[in-house]
């Protein structure tokens, strides 16, 4: 079963305002947002997570230089004892309801896919990993956590923190409040360790960081003759796989590359019952849910698309992403890109950046758990877990 251990983290000194130094995960940060984050503080975590070249050193050496300097200056301080780090994210969901996700950050054992009980969640898209590997070589640290879903019942009760004992908090640009607690009591630490080790962990987010960790582990094992070390584990944010803890949103599809004049509603009609739906407004996702339908958006209108029985039968999983894959296979060489957020999707169609968009319903936690238990993978870009843990709440040294 998956090994899960406390570690001596590096955290910003209490005098540092976390609002000024925390950042989103690196893979959702564009150039303009990076510049804005860097302007907030000379110690913003984006400077090491997404470093830039300097005249006298490349970006990877720059990240290592900054981390060393911040430790020397006391900006980053090492935890005196190993700890688990409880992180709670409080937010409003898409229906405006106040929700929270509470998980625990620790060091999760790396396991080659197909071995052990850390299970991939989705098939991943090809993506270069050399830069992330170069960054880990230079900094010898895990800078942001992967996200794991524990199938152990009751984990969320074990990590319920005392409300007034948080060691730090920040609010991100979307209004999500991120709070951090330390768990160091030996009995409590052992209970969390044993709970996570009692059931498989599904890798929900951070597949490429995980694969980078595996590559780094193999390098270090070759150098050390296979000796055990920090590189055998990776920093992970582990949340119980239950609908009370998770907010799952859909990742929608933008479609381009189709022949001019293609009647897309008619083309999809072979696989879906298609009906006009009116404007795409905040109630559109509710219409989709009530109708059991996907949504099609083109420059000329929008439609609801209810899967036909043969489409359901041909889908790999009980997922809109799998149902759409059945229909896309019949179109002439569609080019598909991915986007979350209905407003971003409709804007792309309005601006002519895509010929059409297909809106999907989110996967249910029950479906995620069912696929995981069968040790299968969902289609790429099926789930968007919201919100995302902030980078900068804690770093994990990988020095041994």
N→C terminal distance: 23 Å
Total tally of structural domains? 2
Q: Pick out the low-confidence regions.
A: none
Largest β sheet strand count, sense and barrel closure: 9 strands, mixed
**Portion of residues within helices:** 25-40%
Shape: globular
User: What is the radius of gyration computed over CA atoms, rounded to a whole number of angstroms?
Assistant: 22 Å
- Total beta-strand segments: 21
What class do helices, strands and sheet pairing give? Answer: alpha+beta
The percentage of residues in β strands lies in: 25-35%
Q: Tally the helices: what do you get?
A: 14
What does this structure look like?
By secondary structure, the chain is an alpha+beta fold. The chain has 2 domains: 4-247 and 385-397, no CATH class; 252-359, 2-Layer Sandwich (Conserved hypothetical protein from pyrococcus furiosus pfu- 392566-001, domain 2), CATH 3.30.1760. The protein has helices at residues 18-21, 31-40, 46-49, 59-72, 130-139, 155-158, 186-197, 207-224, 264-268, 284-291, 309-314, 320-328, 342-350, 365-373; strands at residues 4-5, 10-12, 76-78, 84-92, 98-109, 118-120, 141-142, 146-150, 168-171, 177-183, 201-205, 233-240, 247-250, 252-256, 272-276, 294-298, 301-307, 335-339, 356-359, 383-386, 396-397. Helix content is 30%, strand content 26%.
């Amino acid at each position: 079963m998956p090994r899960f251990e406390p570690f001596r983290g590096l955290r910003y000194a209490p005098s540092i305002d976390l609002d000024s130094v925390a950042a989103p995960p690196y893979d959702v940060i564009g150039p303009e947002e990076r510049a804005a984050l860097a302007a907030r503080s000379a110690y913003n975590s984006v400077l090491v997570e997404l470093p830039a070249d300097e005249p006298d050193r490349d970006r990877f050496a720059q990240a290592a230089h900054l981390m060393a300097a911040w430790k020397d200056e006391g900006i980053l301080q090492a935890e005196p004892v190993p700890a688990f780090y409880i992180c709670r994210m409080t937010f409003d969901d898409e229906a405006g309801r106040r929700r929270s996700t509470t998980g625990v950050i620790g060091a999760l054992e790396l396991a080659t896919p197909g071995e052990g009980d850390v299970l991939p969640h989705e098939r991943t898209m090809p993506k270069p990993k050399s830069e992330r590997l170069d960054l880990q070589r230079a900094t010898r640290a895990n800078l942001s956590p992967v996200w794991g879903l524990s199938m152990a019942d009751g984990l969320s009760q074990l990590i319920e923190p005392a409300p007034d004992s948080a060691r730090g908090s920040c609010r991100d640009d979307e209004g999500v409040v991120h709070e951090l607690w330390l768990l160091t009591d030996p009995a409590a630490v052992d209970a969390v360790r044993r709970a996570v080790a009692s059931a498989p962990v599904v890798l929900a987010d951070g597949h490429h960081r995980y694969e980078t960790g595996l590559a780094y582990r193999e390098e270090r094992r070759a150098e050390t003759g296979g000796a055990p070390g920090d590189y055998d584990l990776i920093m992970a944010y582990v949340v119980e796989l239950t609908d009370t803890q998770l907010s799952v949103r859909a990742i929608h599809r933008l479609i381009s590359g189709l022949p001019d004049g293609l009647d897309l509603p008619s083309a999809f009609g072979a696989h879906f019952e298609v009906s006009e739906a009116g404007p795409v407004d905040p109630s559109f996702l509710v219409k989709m849910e009530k109708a059991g339908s996907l949504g099609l958006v083109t420059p000329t209108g929008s439609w609801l698309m209810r899967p036909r029985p043969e489409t359901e039968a041909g889908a790999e999983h009980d997922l809109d992403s799998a149902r759409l894959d059945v229909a896309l296979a019949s179109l002439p060489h569609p080019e598909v890109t991915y986007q979350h957020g209905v407003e971003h999707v409709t804007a792309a169609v309005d601006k002519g950046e895509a010929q059409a968009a297909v809106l999907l319903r989110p996967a249910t936690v029950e479906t995620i758990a069912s696929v995981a238990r069968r040790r299968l993978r969902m289609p790429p870009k099926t789930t968007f877990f919201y919100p995302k843990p902030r980078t900068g709440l804690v770093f994990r040294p990988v020095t041994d």
